[in-house]
Design brief:
Three copies of one chain form a homotrimer. By secondary structure, chain A is α/β, with parallel strands linked by helices. Helix content of chain A is about 40%, strand content about 15%. Chains A, B, C: Pfam families: Aldo_ket_red (PF00248).
Chain lengths: ~300, ~300, ~300
C-alpha cells in the first residue's frame, strides 16, 4: 500500500488508509478475533491503527492490547495512534460533565495510561483530541515535548484543531505537530474551503480524515444533500465501475493535501474493498460532479 | 495584587484587574469624591485606569484629570490607558455621523488632547479604539511610533481588533502592540473559540476584557442564555462559596491568555468584592459547567 | 493617470483604473471599433486591459487580438492581464460540467492559448481565476514559475482567492503574487472587514476590484441596501458635485489598499467620466455615510 511520509519528519509515515478502532468494544470480538482482524489489515498494508483513551467508554485500548499480547511481534509492524484531552463521564470516574483537559498533568497521565492499557512501550503518535478553550500552550507543549524526549511518544499531533489552534500550540513546541485528524467527507466538505486543508498543505501537516463516509449518511442518509450524493455515486459507479464506498474514498484521496482516511468497519470484506481503490484516481470531472451533488450547486 | 507583565516589554505591566472609567461622568462625583475612589482602588492594588477620549461625551478624561490634580503624586502609582480613533457626534463638534478616524493627524491630536485634558505628561498606553476600514497602516504606524519616541505615549495597543487587523498594523510598527482590549464574558465567549484569544496568547499580547459581566446581563438578563448562566452561578455560588460576580471574574481569570478584566462600578464595595477573587482559582469542571450554561450545550 | 506600482516588483505597474473586457464579445464591435475603444482608453491613461480565457464563451481574447493586430505598436503601451483555471462548458469543448483545473498542464496550456489568441508574446499578468479545492500548490507553483522564467508571463497573481489560498500558493512559488482580483463594492463590502483587503495591504498585494458598481445594482437595484445607497449617492452628488458613478469609484479609490477598480463599459463617455474622478478624494465623512447606507447601520 502507498504510504504517507511526513515532510516534517522523514522517518515518520502512516499507511495511506488507516484503521479506526473507536467501535472495537461494540464488536464484542474475542481477543483472538481482534488479532485476526489486525493481521488481515496488516496483510492489506493497513498498518496505522487509530485509538483514543475514551473510545468504547475507555475500554478499546485495553481490548486492543489484549489482542496484541497474543502476538507481540505485530507491534513492530504497526503505527499506534492514541488521543487524549477529553474527560468523558463514565462509571470509571466521577466527572460532573464531559469536558476537556489539556493540562500537562492530565495529558501525561493519559498517555501513560494508554501505554499501560495497550501494554506497549511507546505510542507512535499522540493527538490532542479536541481544542480546549483553556489550553495553556506553554504547559501543554512542555508536557508533549517531555513525552517525546522521554520516549513514551514517538511523535505528536492534534485532532479537530483549526489553524489558529495549531499555530498557538506549535508556537510553543520543540517538535513539529505532524498530523491533524479532522472530519472530512463529501457531506462535511467545509475543510476543503475554509482553510483547514490549505493550512495542512501549506505547513505539510498530514490530515487524517475521520468519518469519511459521514457515518454512513453518504450511502443511506435521507437528507437532501445525501440523496443527491447517492444519485451521483450511482451514476459514477456505473460509468467508472467502482463501488460507491470506493468512490467516496477516491474523492478524499484525490485531494492534494494527501490525507489518510480512517476506515471503521469491523468487516474485512469492506476494508479490502476500500483498500482496493488505491491506485484508481478519480477523474477531475467526476470529482467535481460529486462536489456539485454534495453542495447542490455548481462552482462559481 | 497580581500584576500582568508584558512578555513583549518587560518593563510594562498592568494590574490584573483594571478599572474602567467610561461612566465616570454619569456618577456626578465631585473631584474630591473621584479622588477618593482612585485612592481606594490604588489601595486595593488596582493601578490601571482605562479611559478614552470619547468617554462621557468627551468629558471623562477631564474629570479624571481634575481629581488627579488634587493629588498629583498619585500619577506615579498608576497606569493610565486612553483610546482614540472614534469620532462621536457631540455638542463639541459638528460631525455628520459617528465614524472612525485612524489618520496620523487625528490620532496624534487626540493623544495630545487626552494628555492635556488629564494634565499629565505621558499616557502609559494608547489604544486605537476600533478597527477603521480606512486604516492606512503605514500612516498610523508612523504616528504611533512618533508618539512613543516623543515620549507622549509609553506603549501602544489596540481595541476590538481582530487578528488580521493586529497583523496589519503590527507589520508597519517599530514598537510592539502590547494590548488588545476586547469584549469577553460568558455571554460573549466567541473570542475564546474564534482565534482572538489564541492569537493574543500566541503573540503574547495582553487581552483586556471589557464588559466582563456583559453589561450586567450575566446577573439580571432575561434571555435564555442569561437565565441558564444565572442558574449555574447560583449553584456554584453555594458549592464554592463565591459570589456570582466573583465567579464571573474567576471564569475570565482562569483563561490562559492571562487577561485583565475591566471593572466599571463606581461603588467600592463591589470593586473590593471583585478584587477578592484573585487567588481563588475556579476548578476546571466549574469552568466548563458555566461554559455549558452559557452555550446551552455540552462540549463536542 | 495615477499608476499603481507594485511594492513587490518595482518594475511592475497598472493604471489606477483598469478596463475589464469580459463583455467585449457582447458589444459586437468590428475590430476597427474595438481598436478605437482601446486607443481612447490609452488616451485617458487606462493602460491595463483585463481578460480571461473564458470571457465571452472563450471568444474575447481573440477579438482583442484581432483589434490589436490592426495596430501592433499599441501592445507596448498596455498591460494585458489574463486569467485561467476555470473550465466552462461550451461548444468548443465537451466538459460535463463547469469546473476548475489548476493543474500545471492546464494552466500552462491555457496561458499559451491566450498568447496565441491575442497574438502576443507575453502576458503582463496571469491570474488563477478561482481558488480550486484541488489546487496542488507545488504543481501549480512550478507551472507558474516556469511560465515566468520562460518569458511567457511577466508576472503572476490570483483572483477571488482568500488569504489562506494566497498563503498556500505563495508558500511554494519563487515569484511573488502581485495581484488579487476580487469583487468589492459598496454592496459587496465584506472584503473591507473580513481580512481580505487587510491581507493585501499587509503583504503589499495590489487588489483589483471587479464589479465595482455591483453589476449596476448601486444605481438601479431595488433591494433595500441598494435603495439606501442610491439615496445617499443622490445627496452626496448634490453636495459634492460628483456623479453617482464617480462617487462609487471614489469610495473604492479612497481605501488605503490602493486598489484598481475595473470598469466594464463599452461607452467611452462613461469611461471618461469614471477616470475624471481621480484626484478628487472623497471626504472621510462622506465615505462613512455611504458605508452606513450600504450596511444599514452606524459603525459600532
Amino acid at each position: 500500500m502507498q504510504r504517507i511520509q511526513s515532510s516534517l519528519d522523514r522517518s515518520f509515515s502512516l499507511s495511506r488508509i488507516a484503521m479506526g478502532l473507536w467501535r472495537l468494544a461494540d464488536w464484542k470480538y474475542t481477543s483472538q478475533q481482534t488479532l485476526e482482524l489486525l493481521e488481515q489489515l496488516l496483510g492489506l498494508g493497513v498498518t496505522t491503527f487509530d485509538l483514543a483513551d475514551i473510545y468504547g467508554d475507555y475500554r478499546c485500548e485495553r481490548l486492543f492490547g489484549d489482542a496484541l499480547k497474543l502476538k507481540p511481534e505485530l507491534r513492530g509492524k504497526m503505527e499506534i495512534v492514541s488521543k487524549c484531552g477529553i474527560k468523558l463521564m463514565s462509571d470509571n470516574n466521577n466527572y460532573a460533565l464531559n469536558h476537556y483537559d489539556s493540562s500537562g498533568t492530565h495529558v501525561t497521565a493519559a498517555a501513560e495510561s494508554s501505554l499501560e492499557n495497550m501494554r506497549i512501550e511507546q505510542l507512535d503518535l499522540l493527538l490532542i483530541h479536541r481544542p480546549d478553550p483553556l489550553m495553556d500552550a506553554d504547559e501543554l507543549a512542555e508536557a508533549l515535548d517531555r513525552l517525546v524526549s522521554g520516549g513514551k511518544v514517538r511523535a505528536v499531533g492534534v485532532s479537530n484543531f483549526l489553524p489558529h489552534h495549531v499555530q498557538l500550540l506549535q508556537s510553543r513546541l520543540s517538535v513539529p505537530l505532524l498530523v491533524n485528524q479532522i472530519e472530512v467527507s463529501m457531506l462535511q466538505s467545509a475543510p476543503l474551503f475554509d482553510g483547514q486543508l490549505d493550512y495542512c498543505q501549506r505547513e505539510r501537516i498530514i490530515p487524517m480524515a475521520w468519518s469519511p463516509f459521514a457515518g454512513g449518511e453518504l450511502f443511506t442518509g435521507s437528507g437532501e444533500a445525501a440523496r443527491r450524493v447517492q444519485a451521483c455515486l450511482e451514476e459514477l459507479s456505473r460509468e467508472l465501475d467502482m463501488e460507491p464506498q470506493q468512490l467516496a474514498l477516491a474523492w478524499l484521496l484525490k485531494h492534494p493535501s494527501n490525507m489518510a482516511p480512517l476506515l471503521g468497519s469491523g468487516r474485512v470484506s469492506r476494508l479490502r474493498n476500500g483498500v482496493a481503490v488505491l491506485g484508481r484516481e478519480l477523474p477531475r470531472e467526476a470529482w467535481f460532479r460529486l462536489l456539485r451533488a454534495a453542495r447542490g450547486r455548481d462552482v462559481d
